[in-house]
């Protein structure tokens, strides 16, 4: 779709470059695509502090750090970062960013569209208020619906805070010109909260770097069967169940199996200690890597890839990257993600939180390389059908329709 003129688009996001997070990799292509279409794009995001909670050097001591990349103006704003990995600490971070984003976005000249990507809901609130400030349409991107996600993880229970967040969620859906989300389960939830909401599904996808790695990087010869994991080490992932499976295999002596973990997160120290206790010497940890590095390492050194998720309605963004590497998935999941893996035939689904199921899946793949190859081939084809650049084009269309006043 071609606009009559270039628009000014304000994008508010909790994570952006140089942070290495799923949120950053979802919204960054949106910003680039809009800029490539000739729009003036400004991103407001926190100074980089994830996952350590410590602001990176070069971003300290200033209320706003200005930069530019891929034709996009980037405004990193001060936040109350903290190494404290509690709900209270995160709420302080989110609230401070919401306030700082509102201030930084308000002093911009009038914007034509405001796009906010959540969670947390404070980002949506800042986006909604900025849209009112600029008398512009509001587009709301929902990667994980709050507060439902926090409730399902047991981080939030009945009370005033939950009631307040639920009311804010309803208001954001009601005020958005279009609400975009990542899977059908989330879309159904949004429609249940606000039956009048205009909802579009734009799934997370992968990049050509991951597809290229899947096509060109071969598994290096090595001892044993290696299960890989890349991503956040947090409460929702619970990769301890896979560590238990590796330990059980070592105990039987029937199969030499190891695990390779790439990533970081609030529970990394706990997970490392757990691995040392349960499966000493069998789990190798690496910190954060660039996506290209992570793709190459996983393609070279793993035989299968783990998706472990405690929530039953989410579809992890890593699913698309894993699929691109032409490796079978061991999916310890349920709900929406289990349905997707089974429908596409890209992995073996096991019960969530069940080490025995993961162990059996590893044994099955190790004893039947042809099955792994078949699942991996289908995974690569699935990934090629779900490139982030295609999702970015769809989001740019949504934003342009909002700017035209076409009702989303």
Task: Describe this structure in a few short sentences.
By secondary structure, the protein is of the alpha/beta class. It has helices spanning about 20-35, 85-105, 120-135, 150, 160-175, 185-195, 210-215, 240-250, 270-280, 290-300, 320-325, 335-345, 355-365, 370-385, 390-405, and strands at about 10-15, 40-45, 65-70, 70-75, 115-120, 140, 180, 200, 225-230, 255-265, 285, 305-310, 330, 345-350.
Number of strands: 14
Mean pLDDT: 92
Question: Unreliable segments (pLDDT under 50, ≥5 consecutive)?
Answer: none
Helix content: 40-55%
Strand order of the largest sheet: 3-4-2-1-5-6-7-8
Beta-strand level of the residues, as a percent range? 15-25%
Major sheet: 8 strands, mixed
Task: Tell the overall outline.
Answer: globular
**What separation lies between the terminal Cα atoms?**
13 Å
Helix/strand order, N-terminal first? EHEEEHEHEHHEHEHEHEHEHEHEHEHHH
CA-based gyration radius: 21 Å
Count of helical regions: 15
Name the structural class: alpha/beta
Features:
single chain; 408 residues; alpha/beta; eight-stranded mixed sheet
Please specify the SSE layout and strand pairing.
Elements: E1 8-13, H1 22-36, E2 40-46, E3 64-69, E4 72-77, H2 87-106, E5 113-118, H3 121-134, E6 138-142, H4 148-152, H5 160-175, E7 178-181, H6 184-193, E8 199-201, H7 208-216, E9 225-232, H8 240-252, E10 257-264, H9 268-278, E11 283-286, H10 291-301, E12 304-308, H11 318-324, E13 329-332, H12 336-344, E14 347-350, H13 355-367, H14 369-384, H15 388-404
Parallel strand pairs: 1-2, 1-5, 2-4, 5-6, 6-7, 7-8, 9-10, 9-12, 10-11, 12-13, 13-14
Antiparallel strand pairs: 3-4
């Amino acid at each position: 779709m071609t606009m009559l003129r270039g628009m000014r688009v304000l994008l508010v996001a909790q994570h952006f470059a140089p942070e290495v997070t799923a949120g950053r990799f979802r919204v960054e292509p949106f910003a680039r695509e809009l800029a490539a279409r000739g729009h003036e794009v400004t991103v407001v995001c926190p100074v980089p502090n994830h996952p350590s909670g410590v602001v990176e050097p070069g971003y300290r001591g200033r209320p706003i750090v200005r930069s530019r990349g891929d034709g996009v103006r980037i405004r990193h704003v001060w936040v109350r970062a903290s190494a404290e990995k509690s709900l209270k600490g995160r709420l302080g971070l989110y609230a401070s960013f919401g306030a700082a984003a509102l201030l930084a976005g308000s002093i911009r000249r009038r914007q034509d569209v405001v796009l906010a990507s959540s969670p947390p809901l404070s980002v949506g609130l800042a986006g909604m208020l900025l849209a009112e400030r600029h008398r512009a349409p509001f587009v709301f991107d929902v990667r994980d619906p709050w507060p439902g996600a926090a409730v399902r993880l047991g981080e939030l229970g009945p009370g005033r805070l939950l009631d307040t967040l639920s009311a804010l969620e309803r208001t954001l859906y009601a005020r958005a010109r279009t609400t975009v989300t990542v899977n059908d389960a989330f879309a159904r939830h949004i429609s249940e909260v606000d039956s009048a909401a205009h909802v579009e599904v734009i799934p997370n996808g992968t990049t050509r770097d991951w597809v290229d790695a899947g096509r060109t990087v071969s598994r290096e010869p090595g001892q044993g069967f290696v299960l890989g994991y890349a991503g956040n080490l947090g409460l929702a992932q619970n990769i301890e169940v896979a560590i238990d499976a590796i330990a059980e295999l070592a105990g039987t002596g029937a199969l030499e199996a190891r695990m390779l973990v790439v990533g970081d997160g609030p529970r990394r120290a706990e997970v490392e200690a757990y691995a040392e206790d349960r499966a000493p010497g069998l789990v190798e940890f690496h910190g954060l890597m660039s996506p290209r590095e992570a793709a190459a390492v996983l393609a070279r050194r793993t035989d299968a890839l783990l998706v472990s998720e405690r929530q039953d309605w989410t579809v992890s963004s890593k699913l698309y990257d894993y699929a691109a590497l032409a490796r079978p998935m061991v999916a310890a999941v349920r709900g929406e993600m289990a349905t997707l893996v089974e429908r596409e035939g890209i992995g073996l689904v096991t019960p969530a939180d069940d080490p025995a199921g993961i162990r059996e899946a590893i044994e099955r793949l190790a004893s039947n390389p042809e099955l792994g190859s078949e699942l991996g081939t289908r995974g690569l084809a699935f990934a090629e059908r779900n490139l982030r650049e295609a999702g970015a084009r769809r989001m740019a269309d949504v934003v342009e329709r909002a700017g035209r006043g076409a009702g989303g």
